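Journal club prep — side note

Before the paper discussion, L.F. wants everyone to see what a predicted structure for a comparable chain looks like in token form. Sequence:
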Amino acid sequence: MLNKVADFIGKHQLLSHDSLHLVALSGGADSVALLLILQRLGYRIEAAHCNFHLRGEESDRDEDFVKSLCKKLGVPLHVIHFDTKEYASIHQVSIEMAARDLRYGYFRQLCQDIGAASVCVAHHRDDAVETLLMNLLRGSGIHGLTGIRPKNGQVVRPLLCVSREEIEEYLHSIGQDYVTDSTNLVDDVVRNKIRLHVLPLLKEINPKAAENIFKTSRYLFEAERIIDQSVCAQKTRLIQGNPDGFPQTVSIPQLLRLPSPEIFLYEWLSPYGFNTTQTEQICSCLNGESGKEFCSSAYTLVIDRETLILASIPTPMKTIKIPEEGLYRYDENTCFKVGRSNDLLISKSDDCVTLDAATVRFPLTVRPVQTGDRFCPFGMEGHRLVSDFLTDCKRSLIDKRRQLVVTDRDGQIIWVVGLRSDNRFRVTEKTLEIIRLTISKGGSS
């Protein structure tokens, strides 16, 4: 047993004999075995026990047991008490999630306080198999089928190479007792149902069922690494725009040439809150009509002709009034400056328009474009829908939604901001004075 765990630790570089390591000690067979094995392998360890006060006298019994065990072994012990039910109520999470949050939050802080390099938890091979089966039942992708990782940040799992049966046999062979959490014996949650019913049935079919499922998870882990490397290269090639900013765009024709567009979509979009069902729907619409939109809690993905556009969902756009000349803040990043001048120099910048002052009637209004908006584009005759004009300018659906216009007192559009002024307000040979209207980013004038 000691050699098996030592080899696993070495293979995955989980622990160092030069560092201090914290052992999460519940008092159950798994954590007791972990504590004893690491001590016998010569690692410098301290233990931490969380009393969640969820099982009455049984919780206190567990605490007394670990105190006695650590005293006998000479292992420093840290104990903390949590009002888990109160935490779950305040944060509106399940009891299981509350206990997890409290436990790992405490471990992180304790590691920092005592200078521990890692937190050693006692997940074993059967735990990894149960997790894989749970994820399989949920319809997980390949990431969920790789089971539990030997190392996840500061958390390490030295016992993943051994089964629950091996752990109990080891403790029996050295005469070491442990406590049993009675809630693990009740099939009231999915994990317990799998542990108490599904795995025993699988072992009846094949005594090596758990071992073989675990091996498969390791194969999938290696396959996952290859897939991740491939997807990373594809992201670099396909995603246009700032990879850490928005909008991001992907060419649909290039996407469809990939071996698996669906995997690419999931790997690209899942960090932004899109689930597998949505990525399947998106994939099925790649050859469909333009304008389809899919949203997560904070992001939107739009199919715009032959392009996928990913953008953050903006805060609702507002309307502001400009009663006279001056500097006006539209939002924290955008200002509008309005000035009057006898200098008839015509602006050639997209951020500034020059208008005949005699035709401009205050107050002005800055607002988002609306359905049915029309204007007379500078240099053209007749009215056009702003939406059609934006289409001609090859503006994406995302950009169209964020497009601002400036209107005069009568509601006539003076300027489609950043693109084109209205021909009715142009400077002519009869113009004596101009209005210069400028938009600036970053809040500066």
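L.F.'s comment for the group: Residues 206 and 434 are 87 Å apart (CA to CA). Keep this in mind when we get to the figures.
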